[in-house]
């Protein structure tokens, strides 16, 4: 690391060591593993969720690799902790390039603490690169677990928790988001997404389109904070509530998994273009539709396994061929 980087990393603003009596007792009782990478979860809103291990690690780790050094010092100030180790910025843009340098320090016996701005490192936050490199280099890596919005929201949603999948943030682009949602239609497990206030209205529109109005869901916002709010209902109801009262702050969406009937109906398309053409011909006859409208319906109802849709022109060509 250059001295300029060092200076940039050493941001002022943490309390003096002699002001830190409050955390001493908690910190002293905790073992700090030498020569180890430690990932530690930080509060996602409520400072009271900081663990005794987090406090001890902040005070005594040799190096603290933090997603945002200002936020680290803010956390330390709120906890009344003096960060005695060297602080380095460790974020999405440099985590790969910095991992080996940090691990060299681990090799010499240093404790390297990895923290993100909030919640568990590696969960849509930096940390995975150093975990992977530590594994590759045979160096110890451990975790001081704690708050994470995924589990908090899942537990509060009231939806089944025995099997769930975490999908991170939905894609930003509408077409990719719709494709991702269609691919999840047959998912039987409870589904957890992270979402942002400026995309929630569009995402709810797409959820309604893809899943229909009747699936159960929960919109969980400002978890652990004073204004924590859980909106529970069907997708149709939550869609309307987002229009009536746009939610602000941080949020997580939890969607009920498909019933067996829904999963069967939405099972990935193993139908060929010719199968779709036959279905479209039948649909046009039964429902008195124009063939192009029948094709559009059939194609929409049978997405391919990756959530994309079969090419309507190819289905139309197959229809013409069948009809001779
Ligand atoms: N590593 C974090 C964790 O373990 O939860 C997640 C970091 S990710 C960059 C930030 C997203 O997590 C937010 O956009 C939001 O979707 C979710 N999130 C974090 N804190 C939250 C909170 N207090 N309430 C609701 N959602 C939260």
TrEMBL record:
Keywords, alphabetical: Cytoplasm, Methyltransferase, rRNA processing, S-adenosyl-L-methionine, Transferase
Q: Where is this region: Disordered?
A: 1-26
Which Pfam families does the UniProt entry name for this protein? TP_methylase
Q: Which residues form the Tetrapyrrole methylase domain?
A: 36-238
Just give the chief location class.
Answer: cytoplasm
GO CC terms in record: cytoplasm
EC number from the UniProt entry: 2.1.1.198
* UniProt entry tagged with the keyword RNA-binding: no
Q: Name one GO molecular function term.
A: rRNA (cytosine-2'-O-)-methyltransferase activity
Q: Which SUPFAM superfamilies does the record associate with it? A: Tetrapyrrole methylase
The keyword Hydrolase appears for this protein: no
Q: Which domain of life is it from?
A: Bacteria
Positions of transmembrane segments: none
- Tell me which InterPro entries the record gives: 4pyrrol_Mease, 4pyrrol_Methylase_sf, 4pyrrole_Mease_sub1, 4pyrrole_Mease_sub2, rRNA_ssu_MeTfrase_I, SAM_MeTrfase_RsmI_CS
Chain's role: Catalyzes the 2'-O-methylation of the ribose of cytidine 1402 (C1402) in 16S rRNA.
Per the similarity annotation, which family is this?
Answer: Belongs to the methyltransferase superfamily. RsmI family.
What is the official name of this protein in its record? Ribosomal RNA small subunit methyltransferase I
